[in-house]
Design brief:
The chain is 67% helix and 10% strand. It is of the alpha+beta class.
Length: 435
């Protein structure tokens, strides 16, 4: 019974693992530019939000409406009808100075919705870039770990050969095996992180028609495919960037449009105090039995009323609130602009620091560590250094390699954060080609 249960569990685990691996492998590889374009086109949240534009278009039509007419009748019964006419007519309320302000307010809200959608689309593009970069970073770490695993397997074989030839001891083999087992565990952990990052990337994409992956399996010396300048590129001065950023930022455009909406809302509320005119007209007649002369009489009637006179209620609370909302919108604009400059400066300086860090890796750490580990491996093969020294050097080299990968990821993310604050995905620098 226990054996049968174990076999069932093993089969189930094998089935789940196979299907899980199949799902991971069944992906469409995309460049970062393609990923961004597909997300903006097919992202479910963006599709839903875009429907707000259609709603606002209908709100404009609704705001531009004319008041519906009313049809009424007036009949006198019995002796009350003697000498009095019967009436069938229509009345129409004509709004004074309200319809145009209501329509302009609806149009301003439409523009506000449009600005918000532009911002959300740009935000999505940046989220996709960051998720793409993060996935690529995890895959690069996994690649580095697998390369280290191959090297440690080779070192284990060399250690065994040294033992057979009498150069090494059994403890060296055990130490090499322990180090290999450790790296295998780290490879498995790195593989799990890649899978997690892959699902996070597709969660950001949020496109049900596909399951996507990066076109590359690790960071490459080519920066242009990932829409980023080289680490040795000279950045322009902050003051040369800040004004362009203020002009481009969607949140500032939104804050400015909110002022426009608040101004038009105030006008719309004030105009509600203007009285309207009600026009009336119709057909009037007297039957022969109710006419004093004993014959049928008929004709027309017309009239007019002034309605919605702000005598008992003058919309003062609504006007006061509209003024407060306008003041809030102006304060929000000033606050948004001030925060934007601080965020931009922060990301600008962070990118400069990430540039210096990456240049240090490229110019010093990577080159020196590669030369050192090469010499150490040759020295161990020749019997000039012991295994403990080589293991220490291998560990240091692995840590530097992984740290370099994360430094690359930080560099890409710092650039993404910077252009997010600039609000210009096509931001260019004089010393580099247009990305």
């Amino acid at each position: 019974m226990k054996k049968t249960l174990c076999l069932i569990l093993i089969s189930l685990i094998t089935f789940i693992t196979a299907n899980y691996a199949s799902a991971i492998e069944d992906t469409t590889k995309l460049t970062i530019k393609d990923a961004v374009n597909i997300a903006v086109k097919d992202n479910l949240d963006i599709k839903s939000i875009r429907l707000n534009l259609e709603i606002d278009k209908n709100n404009i039509k609704s705001a531009n409406r004319l008041q519906n007419p009313e049809i009424g009748t007036f009949f006198n019964m019995g002796q009350a009808g003697k000498g009095n006419p019967q009436q069938i007519g229509i009345s129409q309320t004509v709004e004074i100075a309200k319809r145009s302000s209501r329509k302009k307010l609806a149009e301003a809200n439409y523009e506000l919705t449009l600005r918000n959608i532009e911002y959300l689309e740009f935000d999505l593009r940046m989220d996709v870039r960051e998720a793409y970069t993060n996935l690529l970073a995890k895959k690069s770490v996994l690649t580095t770990m697998k390369e280290q695993e191959k090297l440690l397997k080779r070192m284990l074989e060399q250690t065994k050969e040294h033992q057979k030839s009498g150069i090494g001891e059994e403890i060296d083999v055990l130490q090499a095996q322990l180090l290999l087992n450790q790296i295998i565990t780290e490879v498995n952990s790195a593989d799990y992180q890649v899978r997690t990052a892959l699902y996070e990337f597709n969660k950001v994409m949020n496109c049900p028609e596909g399951f996507y992956d990066t076109a590359e399996d690790k960071f490459t010396p080519e920066y242009k495919p990932l829409l980023i300048p080289k680490p040795d590129t000279n950045m322009p001065e902050f003051d040369n960037i800040s004004q362009e950023a203020i002009n481009n930022r969607y949140d500032i455009k939104i804050a400015k449009q909110q002022i426009d909406v608040a101004e038009k809302e105030l006008k719309d509320v004030i105009r509600k105090r203007i009285p309207d005119i009600e026009l009336q007209g119709g057909y009037s007649y007297q039957n022969a039995s109710q006419s004093e002369e004993g014959n049928f009489k008929h004709g027309a009637f017309a009239g007019a009323n002034i309605v919605n006179i702000p005598a008992l209620y003058s919309y003062r609370p609504e006007i006061a609130n509209a003024k407060y909302r306008l003041e809030q919108a102006k304060l929000n604009y000033a606050s948004t602009e001030n925060k934007a400059l601080n965020e931009l400066r922060k990301t600008y300086e962070k990118f400069l620091i990430s540039q210096m860090t990456l240049r240090n890796y490229n110019e010093n750490l990577l080159k020196n560590s590669a030369e050192l580990i090469k010499a150490s491996r040759q020295g161990y093969i020749a019997g000039k250094i012991d295994l403990t020294t080589l293991v220490t050097m291998e560990e240091s080299y692995r840590l530097i390699s992984v740290a370099y990968t994360y430094a690359l990821a930080d560099y890409y993310n710092a650039w993404n954060a910077f252009i997010r604050e600039v609000n210009n995905e096509d931001f260019t620098i004089e010393e580099i080609e247009t990305l």
